[in-house]
Specification:
Strand content: 25-35%
Strand order of the largest sheet: 3-4-5-6-7-8-9
Number of strands: 14
Distance between the termini: 34 Å
Largest sheet: 7 strands, mixed
Structural class: alpha+beta
Radius of gyration: 17 Å
CATH superfamily of the largest domain: Fructose-1,6-Bisphosphatase, subunit A, domain 1
Order of helices and strands: HEEHEHEHEEEEEEHEHEHEE
Length: 259
């Protein structure tokens, strides 16, 4: 994938963000999907725009989107390279109108997220980058290179990211190992991006997520010197490895952090 193609994908993601904002700024209907998660016309409008835009790129790859999740495992397991898309991550935050929702597009190669873009349209921020381009950036409106934070030497002075909508007893237990840590609540894939830009040290995810929730921000974090690891195995989080598209519990952190 060429760098100029990634720039085209950033433009596609930002255009999807504009579509979402058109809906966000007026009243909209809310439906329920089969799994009881919410769905709005903004999800569908962004999905349609992104899928069309990616198909028009010079190098056409398969697309796995939250809104096209019926692609069979028999087909997906043939993919060595594809786009992983969440057209509107943080639909609950979108419905609450707290601005903490994103458009996520990741380039996955052999199970690893090599590049991603995360657009937060209500905040006017775009995160992009990964190992394929060797760096990650925050665009608001100009690019600033990101780097994960240095880790505190002891158990004090840690900043840990939690979910605004999905706190759990397991999260409370995790943070108990630190001395009065600062807890930042945030919606959607912005939690991983906070670690990438050095505004937080750790993001433990101790609840369910799907692969499209994390792929783009995961790539951005890798480009900023971080990692996302399975909390059970301490191995890097991988994608499209089995029929189930749910992630295990994971930790987003700088590379030098040891569980």
């Amino acid at each position: 994938m060429q760098k100029n193609q990634y720039e085209q994908v950033i433009t596609i993601a930002q255009a999807a963000g504009d579509k979402i904002m058109e809906v966000y700024q007026r009243d909209f209907a809310i439906e329920q999907k089969v799994d009881q998660s919410p769905l709005t016309e903004a999800d569908l409008a962004a999905h349609t725009l992104i899928e069309k835009g990616l198909q028009e790129l010079g190098e056409v790859l398969p697309v796995l989107s939250e809104e096209s999740g019926d692609i069979t495992w028999a087909e997906r397991q043939q993919w060595s390279e594809y786009w992983l898309v969440d057209p509107l991550d943080g639909t609950k935050e979108f419905i609450k109108k707290n601005d903490e929702f994103t458009v996520n597009i990741a380039h996955i190669v052999n199970g690893a997220p090599v590049w991603g873009v995360v657009v937060a349209p209500a905040l006017g921020v775009t995160y992009h980058g990964g190992t394929a381009v060797e760096n990650s950036y925050k665009r608001s409106p100009n690019d600033i290179e990101m780097q994960v934070a240095e880790l505190p030497s002891g158990t004090a002075d840690w900043c840990i990211v939690g979910s605004r909508s999905h706190q759990s007893d397991a999260f409370v237990e995790f943070v108990s190992r630190f001395q009065a840590p600062s807890i930042t609540s945030m919606g959607s894939s912005l939690k991983i991006c906070l670690v990438a830009e050095g505004k937080a040290h750790l993001y433990p995810r101790l609840g369910p997520t799907s692969e499209w929730d994390t792929g783009a921000a995961h790539a951005v974090l890798l480009g900023a010197g971080g990692k996302v690891v399975d909390l059970n195995s301490n191995q890097p989080l991988l994608y499209n490895q089995e029929e189930n598209i749910l992630n295990p519990y994971f930790l987003a952190a700088p590379q030098e952090y040891n569980i």
